[in-house]
Amino acid sequence: MRSLKIISVVTLILLFLFPILGLFTVSQSIGAELKDPVKLTFASQPLGGSWYVYASSIAQMLRKVFPKDSLIDVIPQSGGIGNPLLISQGKADFGISNSVTNKWAFDGSYFFKGKQVKNIRGLIGGLDVVYGVVILREDFIKETGLDTIEKIVSKKHPARFICKPPGSITPVFAEILLSEYGIKFADFKAWGGSSTFTTSEAITAALRDGRADFMIDLVPAGQPAVSELAMTTNVRFIPLMDKERTKLNEAGFESVVMAPNLFKRQQNELQTVTPGVTIICSENLPEELAYVITKTVCEGKEELSKRYSSLKNFDPSQAWKTEKIGLPLHPGAIKYYKEKGWMK
Fold first, then answer.
1. 3-class SS string, 30-44
2. In order of start, what are the domains of the chain with their CATH numbers?
3. Rounded to two decimals, what is the model's pTM?
4. For residue 189, what are the CA distances in angstroms to 55, 164, 179, 226?
5. Which neighbouring-strand residues pair with 136?
6. Calpha distance 65→5 (Å, rounded)
7. What is the DSSP string of 254-268?
């Protein structure tokens, strides 16, 4: 009888502990097949950008599941255009990029003409939604009656255009958008206006101070510089026209709807496009590492979305799709998505 009581007590203790032990085992088992310390370089974008913040958080998550003494170095440079090249050249093992620039790099088109990159692979697509925005000063609209790019171009108005500098994807996005009307950046200057390329903070200051009339950008919801602009300056967010979106779709951008009130003064939903946000890697990344990175990020979705509301729409079950990544998947990522039953 005494022994039966002892067995019953032990059984109750085990039943109580099982859920806790089970959770611990699951969290530790993600990187169970990795035995030796890992050293990886993770390409993001310059300090202050959302990608650097995302990459730093993902690196912390990976350190928890990688073997002891593993190192992940987050590189605070480059971005959607530069990261595929960094990875291709062996200067980074994996990184954040755009689905559209992945496609350009793999196909050797647009910015990557003559620089075709075939040795990169996809891990995760649809990580974040970055919206194409066209923003005009209300004073400019009131003074000229021009409230679209098409109207500005048709009048050859000397508008003062402002944008992020070459090297990022934004000027390429703007260039493709303007090409629908057969113009280039230099045309604004030829008409008596200007084209200026500078930082996000300087763009906000120029529009606020009346030194620029309109901007084109690619931003996530709540992006700090655009948020400040919308709070301090009377501006208007305008939707992309059907023909503008079609032109951008042909280049690889995906059509999306920008929900109302992502920024102050942006009260209506806007038809626009996104370049997609992805995590990519070298084709030489070992399969087990690609698997663990993919699994850690996908299964850490809740943790990431709690930290960053802009990631709340990330859907791991869709992260394998070609249109979300723009690249062939790495075998390690394929293994995870098939294991989950999302990919057949």
1. CCCCCCCCCEEEEEC
2. 20-128+276-340 (3.40.190.10), 130-274 (3.40.190.10)
3. 0.78
4. 39, 17, 16, 25
5. 214, 236
6. 39
7. EEEEE-TTSSTT--S
